[in-house]
Amino acid sequence: MAKKKKIKRKELLKEPDEFLTFSSRLFSWVTTHQRQLAYAGVVVVGLFALYIGGYLYYRHINKVAQSKYNDAYQALAAGMKPDANPKTWEKTEKLFMQVITKYSLSRVSRLAFPQAAYAAYRKGHYGEAIKLYKRFLSKVSNETNYQILTQMALASCYEEKKDYARAVQLLEPISQEKANPFREFAMMSLARVYRLAKKDKESKRILKQFTEEFPDSPFLPMAKALLGATRL
After folding, report:
1. CB 182 within 8 A of CB 149
2. Which of 19, 50, 157, 206 is 20–30 Å from 212 (CA)?
3. All structural domains of the chain
């Protein structure tokens, strides 16, 4: 077996140290690319500044928007009083629309749509209310309960416009959905719309179904009374 050649200390000292070689090359690269690195640093710092600025701006927007939303909601609550001035709804809608248009990036902007729509409804501007409810509906496509309530609100708007066919089109599916937590309201609304449309047979069908499926409902006496009064 060949004897391993011993490396002399003098030869070791002559060989370049790997770490020093790497460091030297790195220093040389940094020196050569100073301008590019400076630009990269500017970009990183700029992105960081934009992120922080955007975060702070978003917080500010949310804070201001929440305050505006609260003002609008107080106006809405005032309009609910029996002796409230009808012009209150004009103010209420205007305040909610400010939240929608001026603070669209805020968390509360989405919730302002149905409130503004309701104010428009109370003003008797049903077409305007329908547009706002539809805009809200497009924003809650993945939230079933919001969808159902919005569809019921839309049905009420069409009912006021005497467009009973569209109201029925909205109410019929959700009144038959077993898992719908608002099914009682939907069925009573559907029976009323059928009655207004002079479709007493359909109205009686819904009312009879209601009394059979909801024997403990607080609306049961009303449903029975309407059922007895429905003409065929």
Report:
1. yes
2. 157
3. 47-139 (no CATH), 155-232 (1.25.40)
Measuring CA to CA, which residue among 64, 122, 67 is closest to residue 92? 122
Find the DSSP H helices in 80-102: 88-102
Rounded to the nearest angstrom, the gap between the alpha carbon of residue 190 and the centroid of all alpha carbons in its chain is 27
List, in order, residues 6 or more apart from 169 with CB less than 8 Å away: none
Encode the chain (232 residues) as per-residue pLDDT tens digits.
455 455 454 454 444 555 556 556 655 655 665 666 566 655 565 555 555 555 566 677 888 888 998 899 898 888 888 777 888 899 999 999 999 999 888 888 898 999 999 999 999 999 999 999 999 999 988 899 999 999 999 999 999 999 999 999 999 999 999 889 999 999 999 999 999 999 999 999 999 999 999 999 999 999 999 888 765 5
Q: Is 191 within 8 Å of 164 (Cβ atoms)?
A: no
Q: For Cα atoms 89, 90, 95, give the angle at the middle one, nearest 5 degrees.
A: 95
